[in-house]
Amino acid sequence: MTTTGEVHTAALTGPWWWARWRGAGLDVGLALLSAGECAGEGIRFAREAGIPLPVGFVFGVVAGSVLVLRRRWPIAVVLVSIAVAPAQMGFLMGVVGLYTLAASELPRRIIGALAGMAMVGTLIVTFVRSHQYVAGGLKIGDWLVPVVAITTSLGVTAPPLLLGLYVGARRRLMESLRERADSLERELQLLAERAEERAEWARNEERTRIAREMHDVVAHRVSLMVVHAAALQAVARKDPEKAVRNAALVGDMGRQALTELREMLGVLRSGDGLERRVQGVPLAAVGVAAAAAASRAASGGEGVGEGPCLSELEELIGQSAAAGMVVDLSVEGEVRLYGAEVEQTAYRVVQEALTNVHKHAAGAKTYVRLAHRGDEVAMQVENEPPAEPVSGSEVRFPSGGNGLLGMKERVAALGGVFVSGPTEAGGFRVSAVIPA
Predict the structure, then answer these.
(1) E strands along 296-394, which residues?
(2) Distance in angstroms (rounded) separating the CA atoms of residues 421 and 430
(3) % helix / strand / coil in the chain, to the nearest 5?
(4) Three-state SS for 4?
(5) Which of 55, 85, 79, 56 is nearest to 67 (CA)?
(6) Would the pLDDT of 301 be above 60?
(7) What CA–CA distance (Å, rounded) separates 278 from 94?
(8) In which band, very low, low, confident or very high, does the pLDDT at 189 lie, cut at 50, 70 and 90?
(9) Per-residue exposure over 202-233, b if at least 16 CB sit within 10 Å of its own CB, e if not
(10) Domain check: are 180 and 329 in the same one?
(11) Residue 21 and residue 167 share a domain
(12) DSSP 153-211
């Protein structure tokens, strides 16, 4: 697993200004070494300057201990190292202070100015000491003194400065990469959440679509079966021949309904199995295939894209007429072909409207109007109020209240307009306009 910036920030549990206990231990250790070094050099400086040795010792310990503040105040550490340079103490403090200063987030001009001050201070001290050695009897050429001073000052200041600049640039690069990784991780989480939401939405849409398809396909035939069964019960004793015909119709419709139901359930089972077998195929895609196959199975078609179409309206109306409904069909405009989804939706709207007439206005005369326009197709199913009110002894149809909702969803999915409601005469009207 990759350590992100949030995990990195959560790991900052060191004392005071330290990010980690390891860093605190390192700084304390360096400060102790620096204090020891400065204490020894302070005693030597006190002996040469003629001051009490304890004063030089305490001064060296205090000056060297400043190194413990290098992460908090690197400028102060460098300034103290420059200040004690004339006493020839603070070598470790100067090197570590310059490194910390260069690796910090301070502006480059400040880093350059302090590094220049440290180099100049070291140059002057080295130059003076070299002259003292020459004056003390050390035989070296006069040209060697400035060379030694320049070389020493560059050797003391340049390596820690360059190393600190490199480490600081690398640290900033790593932090930038860590922040970018955090940003990408958050984006991936958002994308995953949105993908899950879209998948859930697609699953719900496909469930609704399949349920609507089964309702439209099966409810119509079952409603006609109930109507014929009621007619069969009414004429069984009076007209045996008509009763036989009605019984045959009921049997045919029942077999057709069972066949369609088995085919749709078989498609759903195969789609579910396909989802388990195929890697990387979302449920929504399987649902779409299942719904499309269910539509083909319901219409009896075998080819891809086949389904109920407007040319089958006469057959649909004939089935309702056989059940005793008086249906008047009128077609306006030039008959032409539309897309498969448009024709199927238009057919389902008329089918569901006729089913509702069977359920709620049995015996009422019904008008089916179909209009072919330039860029749209319109349909309207309107029934008159029933001639006789439905008595309690007559058959009643169970209703889930989803028929009108399903029609509206179908039409809205294609960008059409759906309107339904009672008429002034006491009947009911269903109208839909679908873009072609």
Answers:
(1) 327-332, 366-372, 376-383
(2) 7
(3) 70, 10, 25
(4) coil
(5) 79
(6) no
(7) 67
(8) very high
(9) beebbeebbebbbbbbbbbbbbbbbbbbbbbe
(10) no
(11) yes
(12) HHHHHHHHHHHHHHHHHHHHHHHHHHHHHHHHHHHHHHHHHHHHHHHHHHHHHHHHHHH
The type of residue at 114 is L
Helix axes 403-413, 144-235, angle to 10 degrees: 130
Whether residue 345 has pLDDT greater than 70: yes
Q: Specify the CATH number for the domain of residue 397.
A: 3.30.565.10
Is the pLDDT at 28 greater than 50? The verdict is yes
Tokens standing for 222?
């079952």
Last residue of a domain, one of 163, 189, 215: 189
324: left (phi over 0), alpha (psi -120 to 50) or beta: left
In a domain, residue 278? The reply is: no
Residues in a beta bridge with 327: 366
Quick check: is 19 in a domain?
A: yes
Q: Please indicate, yes or no, if residue 280 is contained in any of the structural domains.
A: no
Residue 362 lies in a domain: yes
Domain end: 131, 166, 189, which one?
189
Cβ burial of 389 (10 Å; 0-12, 13-18, 19+) is: exposed
- Give the DSSP H/E element, type plus range, for residue 422: strand 417-422
Computed over every residue of the chain, the mean pLDDT equals 79
Q: What is the DSSP letter of 291?
A: H
For residue range 55-100, list pLDDT tens digits in order. Answer: 989 988 999 889 898 888 999 999 998 888 888 888 889 899 999 9
Is the domain of 173 the same as that of 318? Answer: no
Structure tokens at 396: 């009643």
DSSP letter at 51 equals S
pTM over 0.70: no
Q: Please count the structural domains in the chain.
A: 2
Take residue 27 and report the two structure tokens written for it.
Answer: 């700084």
Q: Are 178 and 320 in a shared domain?
A: no
Parallel, antiparallel or unpaired: strands 327-332 and 376-383: unpaired
Crossing angle of helices 74-84 and 108-135, rounded to 10°: 20
* Domain encompassing residue 347: 310-436
DSSP one-letter string for 16-34: TT-SSHHHHHHHHHHHHHH
434 by Cβ neighbours in 10 Å (0-12 / 13-18 / 19+) ranks as buried
